[in-house]
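Colleagues,

For the teaching module next term, I've prepared a clean inverse folding example: a structure given as tokens, and then the sequence designed for it. I'd like students to try predicting residues themselves before seeing the answer, so please don't circulate the second half yet.
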């Protein structure tokens, strides 16, 4: 009787652990099974095997079940955050990014407490599961339970094998088997892709250094607005805010005599991993995972950084969110990297955001452009629109920005991240307001300070699926701004159109952008359309 009761607990516990994550899984054709075939398989193993062997297998079965659940939860997390399933080969390093984001959102003590409690919960579930499995092992002589175990094992294997049959697929799935199989396929495919991309880098020679003579020594600013995707223009929930922000952006440009062309481009990522989008633009190669990023850097191939360096530019990375050592920055070959430690900012951190965009733009002008007589090529990361999107600051008088101490008054402004993230509507509202701030701030800076320079202002990626909903688009706006309209004419034959709004069609991918910029800036009468996605 004890084994039967324990068996029922096993069936209930294992089944819930395996099927509940599937109810929210975005990457399955059958999101709400009520029976996992593995439930019958596990119970069948415990009941049918000899007692000693079953006791030895109980901890191993517990580990296998928990690993399957961990894979499912990881798929859920990366699906909600990045719009794709988890890949062990490329996503393990992201664990540190999660911890860093958690610390920025709720503070280090709560972040570590959350992680410790999560680890304790996993340990408690393992102990409960292993003990329950052992209690479910039938005593010697319980032939009826052993026969029942063989029947359950056979039934579980048959259901797993035929789970797609019309009479079965409405209720039964095999979540653990699917997770292990899918993860194996992803890892093998990624390993194969690594080899193919590495070979492609060796086969494709670097382009001859462009002259960039059309720029005539103008400064070029490459500004990435965090999470600025075309969802702000296409989704009815955000369209009014997005278009109003772009109208204000355009008015700032018009008042200063600046012209703009805009295109819609596919980003390699969604919801996070902004550096892959940055790397895609800089390299001209499609970088949708960390392996491609690392392979490119280790291959020592040329990039926009080298292109401008050869043309006599001082190359600068303004990276206010970089708070730890950044070896990749040195590999990109910048003359100067202004990270959080180097940027002279006396104001407060604003949850995850280390400083507001308005200060970043102010710093770019006062400490970078005005500090050198050489033309400047600067990559600028604009992070005010990074989650958790609180607080959202007003744009203050630019003459009062100074060293940033004036922002102290907003150190504790707005709701806490936990309050914002407790409700979907509130999250979405704060997202659009943060992007609105980023666009208006960029427009004001350009109108005041761009002068004869060129600004390429673009989104790095669409926000997380939590914001975009069911949309699968990964397009981002790319604006090219300059005072000389003739400098922008070449872009209009490449999918850009005049004004701050992109056309409805995608003009290419961010991997195409390097080739198009170099083509226009080197020769205004001739454009090329690169389709580099190797």
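(Answer key — instructors only)
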């Amino acid at each position: 009787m004890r084994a039967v009761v324990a068996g029922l607990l096993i069936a209930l516990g294992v089944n819930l652990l395996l099927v509940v994550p599937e109810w929210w899984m975005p990457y399955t054709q059958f999101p709400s099974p009520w029976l996992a075939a593995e439930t019958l398989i596990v119970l069948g193993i415990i009941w049918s095997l000899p007692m000693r062997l079953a006791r030895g297998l109980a901890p191993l079965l517990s580990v296998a079940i928990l690993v399957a659940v961990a894979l499912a939860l990881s798929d859920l997390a990366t699906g909600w955050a990045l719009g794709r399933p988890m890949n062990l080969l490329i996503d393990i390093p992201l664990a540190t990014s999660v911890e860093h984001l958690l610390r920025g959102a709720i503070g280090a003590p709560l972040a570590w407490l959350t992680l410790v409690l999560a680890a304790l919960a996993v340990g408690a579930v393992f102990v409960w599961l292993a003990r329950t499995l052992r209690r479910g092992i039938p005593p010697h002589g319980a032939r009826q339970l052993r026969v029942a175990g063989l029947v359950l094992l056979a039934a579980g294997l048959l259901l797993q094998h035929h789970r797609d049959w019309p009479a079965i697929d409405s209720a039964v799935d095999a979540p653990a088997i699917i997770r292990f199989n899918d993860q194996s396929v992803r890892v093998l495919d990624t390993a194969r892709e690594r080899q193919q991309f590495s070979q492609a880098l060796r086969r494709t020679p670097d382009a001859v250094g462009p002259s960039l003579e059309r720029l005539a020594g103008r400064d070029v600013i490459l500004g990435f607005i965090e999470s600025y995707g075309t969802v702000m223009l296409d989704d009815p929930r955000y369209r009014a805010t997005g278009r109003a922000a772009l109208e204000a952006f355009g008015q700032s440009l018009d008042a200063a005599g600046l012209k703009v062309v805009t295109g819609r481009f596919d980003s390699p990522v969604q919801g996070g991993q902004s550096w892959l989008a940055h790397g895609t633009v800089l390299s001209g190669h499609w970088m949708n995972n960390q392996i491609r990023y690392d392979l490119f850097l280790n291959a020592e191939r040329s990039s926009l950084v080298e292109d401008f360096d050869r043309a006599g530019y001082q190359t600068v990375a303004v990276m206010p969110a970089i708070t730890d050592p950044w070896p990749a920055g040195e590999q990109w070959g910048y003359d100067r990297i202004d990270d959080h430690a180097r940027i002279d900012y006396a104001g407060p951190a604003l949850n995850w955001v280390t400083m507001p965009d308005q200060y970043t733009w102010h710093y770019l002008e006062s400490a970078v452009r005005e500090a050198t007589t050489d033309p400047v090529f600067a990559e600028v990361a604009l992070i005010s629109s990074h989650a958790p999107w609180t607080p959202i600051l007003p744009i203050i008088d630019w003459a009062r920005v100074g060293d940033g101490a004036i922002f102290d008054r907003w150190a504790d402004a707005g709701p806490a991240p936990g309050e914002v993230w407790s409700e979907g509507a509130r999250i979405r509202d704060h997202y659009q307001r943060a992007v609105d701030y980023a666009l208006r701030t960029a427009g004001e800076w350009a109108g005041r300070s761009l002068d004869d320079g060129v600004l390429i202002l673009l989104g790095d990626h669409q926000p997380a699926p939590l914001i975009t909903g069911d949309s699968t688009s990964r397009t981002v706006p790319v604006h090219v701004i300059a005072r000389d309209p003739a400098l922008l004419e070449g872009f209009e034959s490449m999918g850009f159109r005049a004004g701050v709004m992109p056309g409805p069609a995608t003009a290419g991918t961010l991997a195409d952008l390097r080739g198009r910029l170099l083509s226009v800036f080197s020769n205004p009468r001739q454009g090329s359309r690169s389709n580099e996605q190797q």
